Amino acid sequence: MYSKIIALFAFIIILQSCGSSQKALNTSKTKPIAATMDLIHVVDDKVKVTIRPHFSTKTPSETITYHIPKIVPGTYSVDNYGKYIEDLKAYDAEGNTLPVTKANSNTWTITTTKPLDNITYLVNDTFDIESEHDIFSPSGTNILKDQNFVLNLHGFLGYFKGHKERPYRIKIMHPEKLKGVTSLKKLQEETPTPTVDLFAASRYADLTDNPIMYSKPDISSFKLHDILVTISVYSPNGTHTAASIKPAMEKMMNAQKNFLGTINATKTYNIILYLSDMSPENAQGFGALEHNTSTVVVLPEVMELDRLNQTMVDVVSHEFFHIVTPLSIHSKEIHYFDYNTPKMSQHLWMYEGTTEYFAQLFQIQQKLITPEAFFERIIKKIDGAKRFDDTMSFTTMSKNILEEPYKSNYINVYEKGTLISMCIDLLIREKSAGENGILDLMKALSEKYGNSKPFDDNELITTITKLSYPEVGAFIEKHVIGTTPINYQEFWDRVGLIKEKTIISTPYFASDTQPYITGSKENNQILFIPGMEYNSFLTDLGIQGGDILISINDKKYTLQNAYDLFEDPKKWTDGDPISVVVQRSEGSITLKGKVQTPTSEKIVLKPNPSITPKQQQLLKSWIGE
Predict the structure, then answer these.
(1) H/E/C letters for each residue in 284-344?
(2) Torsions phi, psi of 368, nearest 5?
(3) Rounded (10°) CA dihedral 202, 207, 208, 213
């Protein structure tokens, strides 16, 4: 998942196996579970779903259990999608209702002495009530009759206990003017009408791994060597099109494929882009959620094209690299994911950290960015990691990521997780005299495992050590499994880099790379992020981490007008008086001072003027210069 803050502008927009008494059901390996979704007759913003399990036995079980996921892969968040299911009913073959009990938010039990023929229920979407929940928009659902349907299928279709490995056949009835884009296998041998699509999934995990978006066709595609890439865009006001985004995507993804070389885990890849008009009843959580052969991206429609393209490059490049891990390299916890009693893997440092590292590394190696820009991104990762516990074991955090205090450190998988992969990369390059790097390690792991052979969670580090060097294993034991913070300068010394301080101008409420403020949906407040080194303006005013902003020069600020904090200062003049009211534990405090051009100290990473030939050679192997 890629959910980090997307630049300052997007940041401000963002502010805005159960009961033991159950008997096993006989399965049919030949007849799929049949699901029907009606996108035509939408009533009260709800979609009707019908499920026919086609159990092979004529003698029903005492209890049949149906689950909607509590959590789905890639989100690392308990979201309880069953909360959006209403009026679930069960029927026998004669149309008689069967007793149904809702056991919890995501589970229904059907107790019967007659064979179950089908169940029906209504599904609410999540986009239009985002103020009421914390579901990340790209993993959510949208039902906008006759206009748009974002079908993350885990929000619509569930599974029967004991039948997760059964195949599915999905029938979707849709308005004729809307076209669905997905990587889900489409059944061509049958002849659907212009308003019916038929899809097949090999098992429930395949179904949930392939989102669908129905909208008025705005589609563009291109060939990426032997991979067909399709872009589908929903822009409610027609601000952006798939054609306008295609050139940047094609350039970026061709560079990614060149970077990956022989790694080729898919023949198709779909980019589903939903652009929000940012109205209160629309998606507000911007970023993307990865899938093996597609990604769902949600971004604000008001972004300028250049900014949208750069954001898409950053976001989609990360998601596309997930074809390496976890598609080709993943643990049994992921392969046999438990949607309602999840067991998490230890290796988020690889699934997310290595993926994010590749998303940065390929841009410098393929000359999409300058060395200075690449080094600046590395420093930004270090600054971002400072907000989290640097002594927390990454494997322990990963295994327990759904619980505190580990949950609060999740975003660090994109910060320190990236840096862990950088260090492993530099270690391998040093030991191999620049011949190999972490990409070669991932290729070796991909060849050993592949998408259908998961690894044992506890054996991965041993395997990595065997496929690379003892020093790599020792690093992981000390800094990933262990709790010792990393001294990054030790690794930069290998490639002849040094740090240098410089003074730069910054925005009033942000550094040059990240905001100083965040928000709380619960109380509609703006908070100064603790643990940050603020610019000269805020420091001289006396702003402290944890301060809640109340007003500036008598103008009150909340999440509703948070964007004004980046517009109002344009009217300020150096030397003008300023009065800022903040809330602290001891009460309301008024801070007075004068407007001044904000400056801050910036760390720059650059080659050492005394770099040695060996360091120069390793640096060249790393960044391609």
Answers:
(1) CCCEEEECCCEEEEEEECCCCHHHHHHHHHHHHHHHHHHHCCCCCCCEHHHHCCCCCCCCC
(2) -85, -25
(3) 150
Calpha distance 528→518 (Å, rounded) = 6
- pLDDT band for 533, please (50, 70, 90 cuts): confident
Residue that has been written with the tokens 């999740």 in this structure: 410
Angle 358-289-372 from CA coordinates, rounded to 5°: 30
Say how many residues make up the chain: 625
- DSSP label at residue 25: P
pLDDT tens, position by position, 365-387: 999 999 999 999 999 999 889 88
| 8 A C-beta contact, residue 440 and residue 428 | yes
Distance CA 545, CA 141 (A): 36
CA–CA separation, 563 and 565 (whole Å): 5
DSSP 363-394: HHHTTSS-HHHHHHHHHHHHHHHTTS-TTS-H
pLDDT tier at 74 (50, 70, 90 boundaries)?
confident
pTM to 2 decimal places: 0.85
Find out whether 401 and 76 touch, Cβ atoms under 8 Å.
yes
Is 83 in contact with 129 (CB distance < 8 Å)?
no
